[in-house]
Write a structure and sequence with these properties.
By secondary structure, the protein is of the alpha+beta class. It folds into five domains: 83 residues, GIY-YIG endonuclease; 144 residues, no CATH class; 109 residues, Nucleotidyltransferase, domain 5 (2-Layer Sandwich); 152 residues, Nucleotidyltransferase, domain 5 (2-Layer Sandwich); 48 residues, DNA polymerase, domain 1 (Orthogonal Bundle), CATH 1.10.150.20. It is 47% helix and 19% strand. The protein contains 19 helices and 19 strands. The protein is flat, with a radius of gyration of 38 Å. The chain starts with a helix and ends with a helix. The mean pLDDT is 80. It comes from Tenacibaculum adriaticum. Its main location: cytoplasm. One of its GO terms (biological process) is nucleotide-excision repair.
């Protein structure tokens, strides 16, 4: 006998629609859309989901409701509206924590043009919304400079103007208004300016440029050079504004551009609106993943929500990959030329936004920053757990002398220098990197096991397959094989090697995972070389002092403690030497150095 839930799934229609999942408290926990409701909903209960959050979601589903719609576009819009209304726990919800500014051309005689955050359905024209106030101010400043308009809120009916009810204000005397309140400007002339302003707001500069050009030439031909210069200044302002916003050829008109880049936990999406080859709107946001959503799923959600939010009626969109957003919109995936470049520019904006977010998060929320990097490393390196504790080993020997090794420790992606360790190689004669690595790894983890210290989640071996195999031998002996992830990194091409796999992994050269591994490897190299250099220097100093007849190890130690180096011992006076080692030894040391000169 099927359960009520199984019965609901079995009786779903094979139609496009929207489904809603309810928990035992009868709260909506997830809303989704589907081309085929039965097929999509069934997949939740028949698939073995890799993502842990999806498994938890499925366990919590007690009841299902669905709404059948005519088209996929209707499903997209309904899904988006239901998510915004109910804010289900497992749905991605785009940020919408502010009202956006619009430019309003007021429905009135001698219309005013101003910015507002309130859209009132009174027949006025609203353009936008704009994603930031700077764009609005720049546009309104340009309009004010080109076309003097009234800013007062008087009712400028013809009767009131004729009766002399109003007097011109300071704006008229400053040249910012032509005085329609006293009949100094006719309505037809005013509306011509409003038509030009409407075109500029829409991104169509052609008519305004032509009109100003004609006016300038007319004034010049009439010898009114001051007036012609004023028009030229306005023409330059308009051209300058247009030049700042034009990025592609003018044939790209009334198009929306969307792109997305993502990491393990978030997506970063960008939107451009293009009119007559100019970007008239730009918007970028961060989207937090809830159920390991794909870039395609996130971008589809972003496209539907953004077009609705910014009141876009464009019939075509440019995107970097195929998306399903209904039949009413033409989806273009540009392959080359200006169209391709505009999508790349959109992606670049998303990447810059992501970098800025990372910098801010690093300061204000370091825990989230660490969690994101650890999750990315786990995914990139195909690990079972996040590598919160990593240890890296490096051998150092020059011409076979003084073989040493270094172990550096990283916690949460950062060096933990107090836990760094140096090792003198004890069981290996001569320069044998493989045997040295085997010895050091064995000694390190034998000690950690004996002292019951925490083991790392990841071991990085500086070297290729040979060094990795040597380290593995020690892990086998200690019974740690398979309990700690281990990789080798070859120097030349940054190849990552795994046990038993001859084919290396190549990470993206710009990835944070590779940068951390390179930092680890460089730290191990630096730490090992410093130890090796100090050892060689100390050895060289001691070997020079050991050449002096009848001078023992304790005398050499006393000399170095006082004079710090063999050079200073050589340069010291007989009296200084006597104070440290007595008369007899002082004379032998002094004679050794000075009889050779």
């Amino acid at each position: 006998m099927p359960t009520p839930l199984e019965l609901q799934v079995q009786t779903l229609p094979n139609s496009p629609g929207v489904y809603q999942y309810f928990d035992k408290e009868d709260v909506i926990i997830y809303v989704g859309k589907a081309k085929n409701l039965k097929k999509r909903v069934s997949s939740y209960f028949t698939k073995n989901h890799e993502n842990g959050k999806t498994r938890i979601l499925v366990k919590k589903i007690v009841r299902i409701e669905h709404v059948v719609v005519d088209t996929e576009t209707d499903a997209l819009l309904l899904e988006n509206n239901l998510i915004k209304k109910y804010r289900p726990r497992y749905n991605v919800l785009l940020k919408d924590d502010k009202s956006y500014p619009w430019i309003c051309i007021k429905k009135e005689r001698f219309p005013r043009v101003f910015s507002t955050r309130r859209v009132i359905k009174d027949g006025s024209e609203y353009f936008g919304p704009y994603t930031n106030m700077r764009t609005v101010h720049a546009l309104l400043d340009l309009i004010k400079e080109l076309y003097p308009l009234r800013t007062c809120s008087y009712d400028l009916s013809q009767e009131k103007i004729d009766s002399g009810k109003y007097k011109v204000c300071l704006e008229y005397h400053l040249g910012n208004c032509k005085g329609p309140c006293e009949g100094y400007q006719h309505e037809d002339n005013y509306l011509e300016d409003i038509t030009a302003i409407r075109n500029i707001i829409k991104g169509n500069f052609k008519e305004s440029l032509e009109r100003l050009q004609t006016m300038m030439m007319n004034f010049a031909s009439e010898m009114k050079f001051e007036e012609a210069q004023k028009i030229k200044d306005k023409l330059d302002s308009l051209k300058n504004y247009q030049a700042k916003s034009t990025i592609v050829n003018p044939s790209i008109n009334n198009v929306d551009v969307f792109s997305i880049i993502s990491d393990e936990t978030h997506g970063y999406a960008n939107f451009f609106k293009i009119m007559n080859g100019s970007i008239v709107q730009s918007y970028t946001t961060e989207i937090k993943k809830k159920l390991d959503e794909t870039d395609k799923e996130l971008l589809e959600l972003f496209i539907v929500e953004t077009r609705q939010r910014f009141n876009s009626l464009s019939r075509e969109i440019y995107v970097p990959f195929k998306v399903d957003v209904g039949d009413e919109v033409k989806v273009t995936i540009p392959k080359l030329g200006d169209k391709k470049r505009i999508v790349e520019l959109s992606e670049r904006n998303a990447k810059y936004y992501r970098q800025e977010q990372f910098k801010q998060i690093k300061i204000v929320d370091p825990d989230r920053h660490v969690k994101r990097i650890m999750a990315q490393m786990q995914k990139d390196l195909r690990l079972q757990v996040e590598p919160r504790h990593i240890e890296c080993f490096d051998n150092s020997n020059i011409q076979g002398t003084h073989p040493v090794a270094a172990c550096v420790v990283f916690k949460d992606g950062k060096p933990s220098k107090k836990e760094y360790r140096h090792y003198n190689i004890k069981t290996v004669d001569g320069p044998d990197d493989f045997a040295s690595m085997e010895e050091v790894v064995f000694r390190r983890y034998k000690r950690l096991l004996e002292e019951n210290e925490p083991l790392p989640q990841l071991i990085v071996i500086d070297g290729g397959k040979g060094q990795l195999s040597s380290a593995l031998k020690s892990l086998d002996v200690l019974g740690l094989r398979g309990k700690i992830a281990i990789i080798g990194i070859a120097k030349r091409l940054e190849e990552i090697y795994y046990p038993g796999d001859s084919v290396p992994l190549y990470l993206d050269k710009k990835s944070e995972t590779l940068k951390i591994i390179q930092y680890l490897r460089n730290e191990a190299h630096r730490f090992g070389i410093t130890f090796h250099r100090n050892k060689r220097s100390k050895s060289a100093i001691q070997s020079e002092l050991e050449q002096i007849p009848d001078i023992g190890q304790q005398t050499i130690t006393n000399l170095l403690r006082k004079f710090k180096s063999a050079k200073r011992v050589k340069e010291s006076t007989i009296e200084e030497l006597k104070e440290v080692v007595g008369n007899s030894r002082a004379q032998k040391i002094y004679n050794y150095y000075h009889s050779k000169q």
